[in-house]
Design a protein that fits this description.
Blueprint (H helix, E strand, L loop, with lengths): L5 E2 L2 E7 L9 H5 L5 E2 L5 E2 L10 H10 L5 E5 L1
The protein binds iron/sulfur cluster.
Iron/sulfur cluster binds next to helix 1.
Length: 75
Amino acid sequence: MTRAGTTGAGTTRVAVDFVRCRAHGLCAQELPEAVRVDEWNYPIVDGRPLPADLVKRAKAAANLCPVLALKVIRD
Ligand code: SF4
């Protein structure tokens, strides 16, 4: 069973700043469980809470984004 990415009162999810995004597609390679790309290589995220076991990898993927467009957000 996978727990949602909850810590305390919040949930964690990924989001994309499309103003910054340059469609490298690196995020989908690093975190395919939560990010896929469209036909132009722009990321698609569904905004669902991340499973707890993906939060650390999501932060790593965000740090690898060359323009820091992938965000890990805690609501
Ligand atoms: S790695 Fe960053 S710039 Fe590249 S597609 Fe993902 S969010 Fe966009």
